[in-house]
Amino acid sequence: MRRVAITGVGVVSPLGMGAEEHWAGLVSGRSAIKRSSRLANQGFPVDVAAEIPEPMLRDQFQRLPRKQIKLFSRVMLFGMIASSMAVEDGGLRNGSVDPSRCGVFLGTFFTTFDFSVFFHWMAEAESACVAQTLDLGKANAYCMTSINPVDFSLKTMPNLAAGHIAIGHNAQGFCRVIADGCTGGLQAVGQAFLAIKEDKVDVALCGGAEAPLEEFVFLNLCTLDFLARTGEPSRLCSPFDRSRSGAVLGEGAGMLVLEELERAQSRGARIYGEVVGYGSAAGDAMIGRNPARVEAVAERLGLAMSSALREAKVESVDLIAANGDSTITNDLAETRAIKRLFGPRARSIPISASKATHGHLISGSGALDLITGLLALNRGTIPPTLNLRNPDPQCDLDYVPNLPREKEGMRVALVNAVGLFGESACVVVRRVVED
User: Fold this and answer.
1) Do 115 and 215 contact (CB within 8 A), yes or no?
2) I need a labelling partner for 379 at 20 to 30 A (CA). Which of 42, 73, 222, 310 fits?
3) pTM value?
4) How many Cβ atoms are within 10 Å of 349's Cβ, its own excluded?
5) Burial class (CB in 10 A: 0-12, 13-18, 19+), 232
């Protein structure tokens, strides 16, 4: 089996564009979570989020094919920009990769409609006989004659986000979307790792992208018992704290270049580290109704972590990049699963959860946390878990609260992602040290 190196990273984050700006925001303890006037003006019950400012996003359009920008939905923009950053960071030049041996693996979940186009369609399709009732015949006729397919069809297909990345970088191997919600980005990295390890491709662009602040998506998420609703915006997301009451959404993408290790070494690429283990576990819709839901989620995450570590064959873990989504169930379940897996060693492993700085990016979060873990290993600094002022007595591990911590010599990181129904994914990365 072949070894798999990480040679490039790209970040589109509410904290900033690119890995350096994102990292600077993390270690400074700055939070991008704020009250959103756009969400508030539209009457949503939740109006706190981590948004990417439009000027910051538009500054990156020069990375994209100019004539195609109009084809991209917001999540496609995030994925395209982050993948272009990762390719540039990895030093991959045109013609340097056999297109048939290059693949795309992208975690993304939600499809989005252009809000104004959708409501105009509804108005045009209203029945002439019964007010506020859709006339299906008029609706279909209007779709066929008056709606731009770019707005109403081509921007709503989640596989096109991966397709545009593949087209943009001439990746003709695998082109796969993993629509698995909160674990999707980490699942994408894991599947890319397996494809390279098993000699299916030599290079893969992988990661996650999500735009959960789009109106229809945000409305959907507001109906779930998932988001925090009241409190000081910058302190509303508080992983492992006694006062935590739910997640806060963010938007963006994290993309990585994975490459067969010997190939990367032969071209003199900078190697951030290597992926050495991957594990996952399915969720269960009944977990939401299970009185023992913490135990059920802990069991699923424990399966994923143990599987990843078993494949990695590492002697110790120096850092855990936690899911830490600030929900009462998942934070407690993650703590319980770590204790169960590592035993007495659990208390000596530093744990960092970064969602209090940039929000929960759903499919983008796992990949972004993996990039954060890689940077921490290489720079000897652990980003803090913000807003951890009054720890939950049942969450009693070393979460690196509020301030970054210097720790030289770290080599192995375990990265966790957990969804709403216990679905879990874990990836183990190791910093490559010259013998």
Assistant:
1) yes
2) 310
3) 0.93
4) 16
5) exposed
Average pLDDT per run of 10 along the chain, which is 435 residues long? 96 98 97 94 92 96 89 93 98 89 96 70 82 84 75 75 94 95 98 98 98 90 90 94 97 98 96 98 80 91 98 96 97 98 97 98 98 98 98 97 97 97 97 76
Per-residue buried b or exposed e for 151-163, using 16+ beta carbons within 10 Å of the residue's own CB: bbeebbebebbbb
Contacts of 328 (CB under 8 A, 6+ apart): 244, 245, 246
Q: For residue 109, what pLDDT is reported?
A: 94
The pLDDT assigned to 375 comes to: 98
Token output for 423: 């679905």
The CA distance from 334 to 307, in Å, is 15
Q: 154: which DSSP letter?
A: I
Task: Measure the CA–CA gap between 190 and 304, rounded to whole angstroms.
Answer: 12
DSSP annotation of 92: P
* Integer Cα distance of 43 and 241 in angstroms: 29
How many C-beta atoms surround the C-beta of residue 383 within 10 A?
25
Q: Backbone phi, then psi, for 245, in 5-degree steps? A: -140, 5
Strands (E), 283-326: 319-321
Which own/partner pairs from 261-264 qualify as long-range (CB within 8 Å, at least 24 positions apart)?
261/2, 261/3, 261/4, 261/5, 262/2, 262/3, 263/202, 263/203, 264/5, 264/7
List the one residue out of 20, 16, 50, 22 whose CA is nearest residue 34: 50
CA separation, residue 97 to residues 2, 204, 256, 267, 405 (Å): 17, 10, 16, 11, 39
**Rounded Cα distance, 62 and 64, in Å:** 5
Q: Give how far the C-alpha of residue 210 lies from the chain's centroid of Cα atoms, to the nearest Å.
A: 7
pLDDT of residue 289: 64
Q: How far is CA 127 from CA 118, 124, 138, 434, in A?
A: 16, 9, 8, 71
Rounded CA-CA distance 13/186 in Å is: 16
CA distance 22 to 19: 5
- 202 vs 103: CA distance, rounded Å: 8
Nearest to 178 by CA among 210, 220, 221, 219: 210
Question: What's the count of helices (H) and strands (E) in the chain, helices before strands?
Answer: 16, 15
Q: Is 425 helix (H, G, I), strand (E, B) or coil?
A: strand
Closest CA to 218 of 322, 118, 113: 113
Could you give the CA distance from residue 154 to residue 72 in angstroms, rounded to a whole number?
8
